[in-house]
Amino acid sequence: MTNPGRPRKSGIDDAIIDAFAELVTDHGYAAVTVDQVVRRAGTNKPAFYRRFRDLADLVPRLLEARHGLDADIDTGTLIGDLVEVQRRQVALFSDPPVARGLVGWAAHAGAHPESAEPFVSAYLAPRRAFTHVILARAVARGEIRAGADAEWIADLLTGPLLMRIVLPGMPPVTSVLGAQAVHAALDAVGFDGDRGGVVL
User: Fold this and answer.
1) For the domain 10-58, what is the CATH code?
2) Pick from 13, 32, 12: nearest CA to 22
């Protein structure tokens, strides 16, 4: 008979993710170690490595736990969907562990591309793919014509917010910036309806 081993305790997963978020907020991604994470989480390294390959493996888990993947968004209108996406993105890029840790994590991922794979496959790709869903629904409702570049729309929505936390000396991410990005996306897809709902 196969020994399934001891079941994983979800509380330990949560404790590790929370400890990681706190440490990244306090010190930045590059300064955090697995030893520090397990110590703050009240667990040990074997428990950590049963769940995660390394610290980079925690990044998509932290982002999904705190900000979701957007797949539940369905307001019934293109503007409503884009505004809700941006509300969540403003919250994401204003979140202290993201704002404090993104640059260090990106540098690590650049030096070790394989470490970015869990983030790309489990978090980034599903969120970007959902832009296709939003635009397809808008086409079906007759709000826009077919043919919009969903990848470019995803870039338009995320790029300005990302720039604010990556480049030094930039002002903070705000709901005004999020709304401006929604207007840019609406321009790009040729939306000519009422935009009064673009309020974050």
Assistant:
1) 1.10.10.60
2) 32
Amino acid symbol at 200: L
Q: Is 101 exposed, middle or buried (CB count within 10 Å of its CB: 0-12, 13-18, 19+)?
A: buried
CB neighbourhood size of 48 (10 A)? 24
| Helix H or strand E segment including 16 | helix 10-27
Distance (Å, whole) CA 149 – CA 152: 5
How far are the Cα atoms of 54, 150, 158 from residue 121, in angstroms, in the given order? 16, 18, 18
Q: Where are the domains of the chain?
A: 10-58, 69-188
Q: Other CB atoms closer than 10 Å to residue 117's CB: what's the count?
A: 14
Is the whole model's pTM more than 0.85, yes or no?
Answer: yes
Determine the CATH number of domain 69-188: 1.10.357.10
Tokens 């932290």 belong to residue: 62
At 40-93, the pLDDT tens digits run 999 999 999 999 999 999 999 999 999 998 999 999 999 999 999 999 999 999
